[in-house]
């Protein structure tokens, strides 16, 4: 496999040297540069993948800026949007809705109120995917990370398990982020 991958690169180098051998060397190296550039561009446009394009790749980050009191299965409403490419995240509901199908990385960090228990779950539509637990004499943080294959319109939320307070303040201790990895 490695050899096969190397062939186009070797061919380019050889071609570049041939050009350099026969013509003016500035022309040779600029041609080689153009060819390598073209090959890299072709590789980058793989299947029309939207990845690595900052205007089209769904990506969001939102912060909770204050304490939120939560009832059983209440959704945390991360109120301050920092990034929201493709507008999948809605700060008034706290729901992330996949703007397109694909594999997404999703994560949250939550902080408990001093001395109080906080249990949250990352939900994928109606499925509880993974839990985070914080309890201690001081504020405690819990983090959840998941990679999920989402269909367009699928929803991801962070919900409390019980009646709890989730803590945050100007230091942005509680946040929710996600982004598309691959289509
Ligand atoms: C909290 O987030 C806001 C953006 O929403 C930013 O301006 C501020 O600097 C952040 N605070 C800290 C302590 O990082």
Automatic annotation (TrEMBL):
Instruction: List keywords of the entry alphabetically.
Output: Secreted, Signal
One Gene Ontology term, aspect cellular component: extracellular region
Question: What domain of life?
Answer: Eukaryota
Listed Pfam families: C1q
Gene3D superfamilies assigned: 2.60.120.40
Membrane-crossing residue ranges in chain numbering: none
Instruction: Give the primary localization class.
Output: secreted
What PANTHER family does this protein's entry cite? C1Q DOMAIN-CONTAINING PROTEIN, CEREBELLIN-RELATED
Extract the signal peptide range. Answer: 1-21
* Protein's name in the database: Putative C1q domain containing protein MgC1q88
The listed locations are: Secreted
Q: Is Secreted given among the entry's keywords?
A: yes
Show where the C1q domain sits.
53-183
The reply on keyword Signal is yes
